[in-house]
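Q: Convert this sequence to structure tokens.
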Amino acid sequence: MFKKLKQRWKVNNLNLFLVICTFAIGGSLCGWVGRKILLFTGLEKNGLWFFLYILLITLLWPVCVLLLSIPLGQFRFFRNYIAKIFRRLGNGKSTSTQVAIFASGAGTNAANLIRYFKELPEVAIKVIVCNHAEAGVMQIAGDHHINTMLINKKILDDPKGCLLQLQQQGIQFIILAGFLLKIPPPIVEAYRDKIINIHPALLPKYGGKGMYGHFVHEAVIANGEKESGISIHLVDDHYDHGKLLFQATCVVTENDDALTLAKKIHALEQQHFPLVVNEYLKKQNQR
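A:
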């Protein structure tokens, strides 16, 4: 049970212990405070007393656990936890931005996005879309209890396939994190300016069909480039062509090969991708 809680809440052994203590002590504290308040009123213990007691501890519980979480160092966890509860109570609908991540491989960028947005209740990674059943990103989705959608090119291109499922799940934005299939026009049109991709080169150089992963890095090295980097951009009807949102560069030295360059690019992706995505989502939601 404790292992599952650690995975679900993404905490270590110490933080899990402190979270459980906060739950237990906070529950006892709100019960004690509720009884003290009712005793002060002088009401007899009858049906009304018990009704008011339950109402009081329901109202007091969030306050008690939040206050207690501060000295125990768990305020961020309980702030997000309580925010999720209130979102679910709000007419049964989530007020967070619903996001789908498309990925085809190991899922390192997807995992980074999931970790980042887990701390931000205003964004929810609702589904991982993948075209390879054995891809590492599928295991990552399972570890984080995120729904998956396994597709192929036919399902992706069919307006009644992938697009319909996305719309039925209330997806508002799509993030491509190493997805190797071209997004078809129906999805691009339905999510115009709401699909974000990351490319491991400085666009417009080294973009287009077949330019992904090590193929990009090999081309950069072969052409003797002095720098490379990442490009985060919106997706349109052409490969690696949409509006640029952000670029970051790294130096390419004489000693670099495709493998060492890939490590530099990966470091840039991990550093910048979640931040740029979050900033773009904020701006879009303010409109």
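Residues 2-89 form one domain.
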